C-alpha cells in the first residue's frame, strides 16, 4: 500500500493542475479582458479648427465670421463611473482648448464590459442610445473585418466601421479602422448654441463665398422664395481613423476630422433640397506623440499580462500536470526488482 501512495499523490496533483489550467484559461483570463471598473484614462490631441464668430456673423461681417487654422489642443478623459455586473457606465469627456476658449462636452454610455458594445443602462441611469455599437473603446483581440458598428453622439446615428488593414505604432501591431459619418445633427448640446435661423439679407451675403455647386442652387428665384428669416438645419460630418492594438484593444493612435455645417432647404421651381451654407465649426486633430508613447507602453504592459494569463500560465500548468502523469505511469508499471535466492 505504501508503494502506491506516491503514485496516487502524483495523479491527484496532476489532476488538480489540469483543473487549475482550465480555470485560468476559461474563468480568470476572460475576467482580465473585461473593462476594469477603475478605468480612468486621459489622452491629449493637437490640431486646428475653424470656428464661427457668432457676433461677427450677426453684425453682417461675413469676412470675419469664420476663423480658420486656429491651433487647438484636446483633452479626452474616459472613465468608468460605476459597474453593474457585466455592464459599465462610462463617461467620455472631451474639452477643446482654442486660445483662451474652452469647449467641453461630455457623454455617458452603458457598455458591455467584454464586447465594449452599447447595452441597456442600469435603472435611472441616463445614457446615449448606443446599443449594439462601439462608442469609446474596442475590445481586446478585435475582429479584422467590417462586423462592428459605431455610435456617433453628435448625430445620434449608428454607422459601419470599416477594417482597412494593419500597421505598426510604438512597436506594436495595430488594426486600422475607418469610420465615416454624415447625418443631421440631433445632439441637443450641439444644437443649443447654434442659431435656428438667419436674416435673408445675411444669407444672401454669404452666397458669394460658397462653392460653385452651392452658388448655382441659390438662383434669384430660389433666394426670393426663401422665408425671412431663413430656417437652418445642421449636418454633422466626421471621419475617424483608429489604430487599435491587436492584443489589448487600446487605441494607440487616432486621427479625427469633424465639422458641423449649416444647411438651408431651398424651394422654388425645383423640389426642396438641402444646400450646405457654411461650416459653423470644424476640427481636425490627432493624438500627440507623448500620449501615443504612453498608450504604447500601456498596451505593452497589458499585453504581457494577457499573454501570461491566457497563454503562458495554462500551458505551464498543463505541461507540469502531464509530466506528473508520466512519472506516475512509469512508477505504476515499473518492473519489480528481483533479489537472488
Write the layout of secondary structure elements.
Layout: H1 5-33, E1 40-52, H2 54-58, E2 66-84, E3 87-98, E4 101-112, E5 149-152, E6 157-169, E7 172-184, H3 188-191, E8 197-198, H4 200-206, H5 212-217, H6 220-225, E9 230-231, E10 233-245, E11 251-266, E12 273-287, H7 289-333
Antiparallel strand pairs: 1-2, 1-12, 2-3, 3-4, 5-6, 6-7, 7-10, 8-9, 10-11, 11-12
Helix pairs in contact: 1-7
Give an overview in words:
With 341 residues, the protein is an alpha+beta fold. It folds into two domains: 1-33 and 299-335; 39-287, no CATH class. The chain is 30% helix and 39% strand. The protein has seven helices and twelve strands. The chain has helices spanning 5-33, 54-58, 188-191, 200-206, 212-217, 220-225, 289-333, and strands spanning 40-52, 66-84, 87-98, 101-112, 149-152, 157-169, 172-184, 197-198, 230-231, 233-245, 251-266, 273-287. The strands form two sheets. The chain has a ten-stranded antiparallel β-sheet with strand order 4-3-2-1-12-11-10-7-6-5. Strand 2 (66-84) and strand 3 (87-98) form a beta hairpin. Helix 1 (5-33) packs antiparallel against helix 7. The longest helix is centred in the last third of the chain and has 45 residues, at 289-333. It is elongated and about 105 Å long. The relative contact order is 0.15.
Amino acid at each position: 500500500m505504501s508503494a502506491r501512495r506516491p503514485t496516487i499523490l502524483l495523479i491527484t496533483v496532476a489532476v488538480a493542475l489540469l483543473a487549475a489550467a482550465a480555470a485560468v484559461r476559461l474563468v480568470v483570463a476572460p475576467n482580465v479582458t473585461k473593462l476594469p471598473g477603475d478605468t480612468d484614462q486621459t489622452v491629449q490631441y493637437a490640431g486646428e479648427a475653424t470656428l464661427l464668430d457668432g457676433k461677427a456673423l450677426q453684425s453682417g461681417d461675413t469676412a470675419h465670421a469664420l476663423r480658420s487654422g486656429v491651433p487647438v489642443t484636446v483633452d479626452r478623459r474616459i472613465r468608468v463611473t460605476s459597474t453593474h455586473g457585466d455592464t459599465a457606465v462610462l463617461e467620455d469627456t472631451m474639452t477643446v482648448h482654442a486660445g483662451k476658449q474652452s469647449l467641453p462636452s461630455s457623454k455617458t454610455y452603458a457598455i458591455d464590459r467584454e464586447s465594449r458594445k452599447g447595452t441597456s443602462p442600469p435603472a435611472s441611469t441616463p445614457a446615449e442610445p448606443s446599443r449594439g455599437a462601439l462608442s469609446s473603446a474596442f475590445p481586446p483581440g478585435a475582429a479584422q473585418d467590417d462586423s462592428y458598428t459605431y455610435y456617433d453622439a453628435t448625430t445620434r446615428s449608428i454607422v459601419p466601421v470599416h477594417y482597412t488593414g494593419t500597421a505598426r505604432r510604438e512597436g506594436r501591431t495595430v488594426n486600422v479602422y475607418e469610420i465615416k459619418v454624415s447625418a443631421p445633427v440631433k445632439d441637443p448640446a450641439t444644437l443649443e448654441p447654434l442659431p435656428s435661423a438667419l436674416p435673408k439679407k445675411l444669407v444672401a451675403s454669404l452666397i458669394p463665398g460658397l462653392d460653385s455647386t452651392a452658388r448655382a442652387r441659390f438662383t434669384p428665384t430660389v433666394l426670393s422664395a426663401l422665408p425671412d428669416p431663413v430656417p437652418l438645419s445642421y449636418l454633422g460630418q466626421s471621419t475617424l481613423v483608429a489604430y487599435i492594438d491587436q492584443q489589448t484593444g487600446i487605441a494607440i493612435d487616432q486621427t479625427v476630422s469633424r465639422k458641423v455645417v449649416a444647411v438651408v432647404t431651398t424651394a422654388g421651381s425645383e423640389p426642396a433640397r438641402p444646400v450646405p451654407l457654411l461650416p459653423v465649426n470644424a476640427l481636425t486633430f490627432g493624438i500627440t506623440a507623448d500620449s501615443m508613447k504612453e498608450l504604447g507602453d500601456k498596451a505593452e504592459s497589458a499585453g504581457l499580462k494577457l499573454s501570461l494569463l491566457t497563454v503562458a500560465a495554462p500551458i505551464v500548468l498543463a505541461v507540469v500536470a502531464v509530466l506528473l502523469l508520466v512519472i506516475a505511469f512509469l512508477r505504476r508499471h515499473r518492473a519489480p526488482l528481483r533479489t537472488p535466492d
